[in-house]
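Quick illustration for those who missed Monday's session on complexes.
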Amino acid sequence: MNSKRFDKETFKEAVKDNVKTLYRKKIEEASQQQIFQAVSYTVKEQIIDDWLATQEAYYRKKEAKMVYYMSMEFLMGRALGNNLINLTAYTEVKEALEEMGLDLNAIEDQEPDPALGNGGLGRLAACFLDSLATLNYPAYGCGIRYRYGMFKQRIKDGYQVEAPDNWLKEGYPFELRRPEYAKEVRFGGSVRFEKDPETGRDKFVQEGYESVRAIPYDMPIVGYGNHVVNTLRIWDAEAITDFQLDSFDRGDYHKAVEQENLAKNIVEVLYPNDNHYAGKELRLKQQYFFISASLQALLAKFKREHGNDLSKLPDKVVIQMNDTHPTIAVPELMHLLIDEEYLSWEDAWEITSKTCAYTNHTIMAEALEKWPIDLFSKLLPRIYQIIQEIDRRFVEKVRAKYPGNEEKLKKMAILWDGQVRMANMAIISGFSVNGVAQLHTEILKNQELKDFYEMMPEKFNNKTNGITQRRFLAHGNPLLADWITARIGDGWITDLSQIARLKPLVNDEQARREFMQIKHKNKIRLAKYIKEHNGIEVDPHSIFDVQVKRLHEYKRQLLNILHVMYLYNQIKEHPEMSFYPRTFIFGAKAAAGYQRAKETIKLINSVAEVINNDRSINGKIKVVFIEDYRVSNAEMIFAAADVSEQISTASKEASGTGNMKFMLNGAPTLGTMDGANVEIVEEVGMDNAFIFGMRSEEVIRYENHGGYNPIDIYFSDWELKRVIDQLMDGTYAHGDHNMYKNLYNSLLNTQCTPRADMYFILKDFRPYAEAQKRVEEAYRDEHRWSRMAMMNTACCGKFTSDRTIEEYVRDIWKLQKVEVTVEEE
Ligand code: NBG
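Prediction with N-acetyl-beta-D-glucopyranosylamine bound:
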């Protein structure tokens, strides 16, 4: 650590003391898990001082505006190593532990991945928190403390099997329970209207409801080397009625049990859907639960610090809604302002609409949240009333602006066709609507949200996503991080634009050699992991071609594996053909109920089994499916990748963030012109990426006007036809002809999808295969490849989440930096 506070000897003593206090053991007797706990508590003790100092600095600087980042998901990944990096104490602690005969890496491996998120959306929230703290911005993350996070994935006989992720089993050392800030959250019942006899004011009283107590747990978010520690506040639920025997006597036994169960169920589990809306009542409960608790806490804090004049709220607070999941914040804030603070509708609206902002993360229709009015109004009667009023006023405006144009309402009203449309509510009510990459924002403006954009263009803006280089380079790829620092200094850690200083080095042969040697070492590290976890031997000299992300049809893992099947056919048919050895690496979780996604996992594993065991191809192709892809193994995978597969159907991937993590670690993109790939190519140049396939306009044209028929391609390309037929002939199914019939049907007919080949896999197959040829050609040329790989790292400055956060601050949040100073002992 850069300060005396992290004196090695003191640290070692503290670890021993913690082992003693926590477990009544000597360090030699402690298990690895116990040592992890003791080390973490020691680190937490150091963090707490900065945490106090930060909150003190925010409090003193009353002008400091605070962003509340509301999100159902925070995919944090492990904290210990990351905290040490950000405390700039990693090396010292590693050494201190070595002196005690302990290995920091092994200790880090004891930490469960806090996986309170699905994929990109949740991981983005985590990167944002890291950047906010590092850039000295006052911020809270608000979310849910799920008992079980993202399920653990096991592969049995090639199939995905889900196991519960009991991440709290051993106790999580970095969280702090804050029961003194508990809040009550109410569900159901009915609303009675009355006039307050004293003031004559209208009052809405909720009666006959059930309620739960929300208990906050705070996790420290450590900024890099600046003593800032922000807070991620996640809420747990408890029953309010204490479970007492006398309630049994009073006949309230059932009620007590119900409230107990309600509380238990609400935070039980994260819904494992990525880019998909399931419409479950419990999910709506989760949403309202954490939003209501967070907003109550927000208002209480505001009043403590700034007094009772709530008109100042928008100057002190901004609420960013991460997708539509937290947009119930709008009517809940209205409810609190009107029913608890006695503001008029107009005043409450003025405040709410200046405080809330919305980020859209997808155009996938199946991801749009639309709650049935019945369900919604029963669960949240008062909130529903407020939404009705927001909608009524908005509809009036639309009618005034577009007289006689009912089409506009069909698209823009909140309440339509028996449903509450959450995105519409967010757009109407907030002051900002942003997409997450340039292309995505343009599609929102010109297609999906066109009517809104025409009516309120000033709200729309783009914020291209980013990732934190602290986790995905400093922590995940220490060899490369040290090398970069040796070459250009360590400024890149907090200012990634400096990484551009590597550009001149691409002409330096020695530098390129070193760069590729590091890549090779990282490939050896991953090969070892694969050997240990999959029992598969892979050659670090082969091309590591990697697609890791959630499994979704639009991401087209199927295109990738069909191409592998095609290559395999080729090699079998022409054994003499020149072919550069490849390792195709996949990692992906499928939502538990997503059949075709699960079939794809099975297909990948079956293809792996056949190809990996075919000695006749001399190991030219290996296929690996990495089990339980998650943040911790992702860090290692990005560091080892040669090729970054970003092959979504153009227009479907809002941004992607994995693409940026690969780029940072020196893996060129093999991809479509989709999401942030477009901007990656802008930065690195067409020559340093492998771009193929349909453009978004073409996809959208087909979707709107029809005219695509995959059957034509199927019958005109016999090699592709053969591959598709192999889905049905038992080649990869031990003779079973039905195993992949859903996949087969999804490509060729409408038996299980609205259109055949919804994601244009056949259409993009040849262009993809050709792009893959170009990859091989480039890789054979060592000079060229090392240049490309290094250029990717050197050009990724734009894709830091620090840049993204500065743009949010400049255009939406208007925060000011707060310095935190700490007395060094
Ligand atoms: C995802 C998009 C990704 C994007 C992340 C973060 C949802 C709803 N959307 O492309 O699919 O990178 O959000 O913005 O999960």
